[in-house]
């Protein structure tokens, strides 16, 4: 099968999925009542099921879970298409995505050169910075609904970009492997459990303090 035929086949399958979602939205009494906000828990759940499939599932599991995640995108798009004031549909979503990816890959779609992953990242970050010119902080755009540990990793990276270092805790030995890191994290969670502390809340509170440090560093003369 040629690449062109395969591409057309894929487009037909995606179009069929979008049309199926449109019919469900219009004809299913449960789906008719669902809002973007109502879908958030399902989106989170489906995202985690994809992660589980990647880490410990089969190829068939991954294919199925990616489809379930795609359904969430189609569902949100179908809801958005019915907005009376500012509608958009899955074609608008796809068009916006394509335009963004073309901008962020000038070494693929233009005459920029990137021979290493590091050079690719330079192009990506430059394009992203141009798109987000209205942002006033490196912390802007980080979703606060992320799990605390994932949020911490994201914010620590952004903080480093602002020249703010996170001091190492004297309470734990520095892990030298990813496995040791997992063990250290688990030990800290167990310590929190023993003392009646909320590990999630503790990390979020520390992140809020770090965010204040970053913003103070950004506003300093």
UniProtKB/TrEMBL annotation:
A Gene Ontology BP annotation from the UniProt entry: dUTP catabolic process
Sorted UniProt keywords: Hydrolase
A Pfam family matched in the record: MazG
A GO MF label: nucleoside triphosphate diphosphatase activity
Domain NTP pyrophosphohydrolase MazG-like: start-end pairs: 35-109
Organism (species): Microbacterium saperdae
Protein name: XTP/dITP diphosphohydrolase
Source taxon at top rank: Bacteria
Residues spanning the signal sequence: none
PANTHER family: NUCLEOSIDE TRIPHOSPHATE PYROPHOSPHOHYDROLASE (PTHR30522:SF0)
CDD domains per UniProt: NTP-PPase_MazG_Nterm
């Amino acid at each position: 099968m040629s690449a062109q035929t395969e591409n057309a086949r894929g487009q037909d399958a995606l179009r069929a999925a979008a049309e199926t979602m449109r019919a469900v939205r219009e004809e299913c009494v449960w789906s008719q009542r669902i809002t973007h906000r109502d879908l958030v828990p399902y989106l989170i759940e489906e995202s985690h099921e994809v992660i589980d499939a990647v880490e410990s599932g089969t190829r068939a599991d991954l294919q199925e879970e990616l489809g379930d995640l795609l359904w969430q995108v189609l569902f949100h798009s179908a809801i958005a298409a019915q907005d009376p004031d500012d509608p958009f549909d899955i074609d608008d979503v796809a068009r916006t995505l394509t335009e963004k990816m073309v901008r962020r890959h000038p070494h693929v779609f233009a005459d920029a050169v990137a021979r290493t992953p590091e050079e690719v990242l330079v192009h990506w970050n430059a394009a992203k910075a141009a798109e987000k010119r209205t942002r006033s902080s490196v912390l802007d755009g980080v979703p606060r609904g992320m799990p605390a540990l994932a949020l911490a990793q994201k914010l620590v990276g952004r903080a480093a970009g602002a020249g703010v270092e996170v001091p190492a805790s004297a309470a734990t030995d520095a892990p030298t492997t990813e496995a040791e890191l997992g063990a250290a994290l688990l030990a800290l969670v167990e310590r929190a459990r023993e003392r009646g502390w909320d590990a999630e809340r503790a990390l979020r509170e520390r992140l809020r303090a770090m965010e204040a440090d970053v913003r103070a560093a950004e506003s300093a003369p």
